[in-house]
Write a structure and sequence with these properties.
The protein is mainly alpha-helical and 204 residues long. Helix content is 54%, strand content 0%. Helix 4 crosses helix 5 (98-107), helix 5 (98-107) crosses helix 8 and helix 6 packs across helix 8.
């Protein structure tokens, strides 16, 4: 999956230490701004805005600490499909609970953003039905990989939907401790710059 190669990196295998999502997001966006790690398709993407919201990120720490937290916006079926899709795009996303984090972010967003996300997820589900006659949850790993290869091709009709979902998943996973460690971050490695602001207290 050539266009997905940038997302596939070896896991450090280090257990999370409880660093706050706010600090992790700050480090991620500083590294993105410096051009030292992967970038988003656009800084106008909703997930980028959420990674600047300290209050929302603080609530995510509480929400994600519960292994049995109920979906806040997505249906249980949609959340399960997103979890599968996320882990197929970025191995480890399930362990980092990226789908649960995205669900939280969506619950705090506008109806327009929510509709755009659901439309992209529905496009993938429809493609799965058309090609393999099964829902996302029933796809084999090979089938799922083949669909993602198709979707990631720039000439594919729904490529914009692929990029839209990918940015949500990239933001959710790489703002987790597992994701940041894959990018080479450690608790004693501090990024000193932050995109557009030198005072994290203004992002609340």
């Amino acid at each position: 999956m050539s266009s997905m190669t940038e997302l596939r990196v070896l896991h450090a295998g280090t257990a999370p230490t409880g660093i706050s999502r706010r600090e992790l997001a700050k480090a991620l966006l500083a590294a993105v701004a410096a051009g030292t790690v992967l970038s988003f398709s656009s800084t106008a993407h909703p997930v980028y805005k959420h990674l600047l919201s300290g209050t929302l990120l603080d609530s995510a720490d509480v929400h994600l600490s519960s292994a049995t937290s109920e979906p806040l916006f997505l249906s249980a079926e949609e959340l399960h499909a997103l979890d599968i899709l996320s882990d197929a795009m970025i191995p480890g996303a399930h362990r980092a609970r990226a789908a649960v984090f995205i669900d939280l972010l969506l619950s705090a967003d506008s109806p327009e953003v929510q509709h755009r996300f659901l439309a992209s997820l529905a496009q993938f589900a429809s493609h799965s039905q058309q090609k393999y006659h099964v829902r996302i949850e029933a796809l084999t790993p090979v089938q799922l990989n083949d669909l993602l290869i198709e979707w990631s091709a720039p000439e594919f009709a729904q490529h914009a939907d692929f990029n839209h979902l990918k940015d949500w998943i990239v933001g959710a996973y790489y703002s987790s401790e597992l994701g940041m460690r894959e990018l080479g971050w450690t608790p004693d490695r501090v990024f000193t710059t932050f995109p557009g602001c030198n005072d994290s207290d203004t992002h609340k």
